[in-house]
Amino acid sequence: MASARQQAFSDGLKAVAPMVAAIVPFGVTAGVAGLDAGLGAALTLGMSLIVFAGASQLASIQLIDAGAAAPLVVLTALIINLRMLMYSAHLAPHFRHVGAGSRSLMAYILTDQAYALTISRVMTRGGVRFNHWFYFGVALPLWGVWQLATAFGYWAGTAMPPAWELGFIVPLIFLALLVMSISSRPGVIAALVAGSLSVLGRDLPAGLGLTLASLAGIVAGVVAEGWRRG
Fold first, then answer.
1. Angle at the Cα of 83 from the Cα atoms of 121 and 210, rounded to 5 degrees
2. Percent of the chain with pLDDT over 70
3. How many CB atoms lie within 10 A of CB 96?
4. Who contacts 185 (Cβ-Cβ below 8 Å, separation ≥6)?
């Protein structure tokens, strides 16, 4: 039994190994963003521990830096992470036999990569009793590397001269993600609407310009997709 658990965990480590290095730049960026926003080491690293979600973490820090109201920051993080509910619902039937403590840990360390690799395994090897150990083998290294990368980003930022203005890294990362995600005409329309309105509303209080621009971009993309299908 112990050997089966070890084998499943080892399989998870091997499956996630090619993906681990890819999250390092984003973790470092989260650390730099926290420093640039003036959150301090405790809050920056605490956010990585509590939120543990790259996109929502970076977006939340940007909103805090823009002076957004706390409810808007929390709502933005929740909306970005809504996909985790779908991931959980899809994985849950395959782990009914796992204890509540282990399932709670699994929920905490859930990521896109952990879901994708694990659901692929359980759909082909659903009867394997120790598939949750495969999940841990995938998810735990991602969690650990993210925490270390965030801490390194914050530390490296403090070691750099203030004149270097490292804060520009954060919008560059978001720009890179945006460009990679645009693959259709509705996507282009959503990006143009959200980008234009965020610039026009940059002087609105409490970060409302960015939030309203994001919502408008989503609506524009949905409407454009409806027109395209129609």
1. 145
2. 83
3. 7
4. 224, 228
Q: How many Å separate Cα 51 from the centre of its chain?
A: 9
Please, what's the b/e burial string for 170-208 (b: 16 or more CB within 10 A of its CB; e: otherwise)?
beebeeeeeeeeeeeebbebbbebbeebbeebeebebbb
Token pair listed for 85 = 């509910």
* pLDDT tens, position by position, 93-116: 888 888 899 999 999 999 888 998
- SS3 call for 218: helix
The predicted-structure confidence for 147-203, as pLDDT tens digits, reads as follows 999 999 888 877 765 555 555 555 555 565 566 556 678 778 888 888 788 778 777
Half-sphere exposure of 142 (CA within 13 A, CB side): 28
- Note the pTM of the prediction, 2 decimals: 0.72
Helix spans in 160-207 (H): 169-181, 185-200
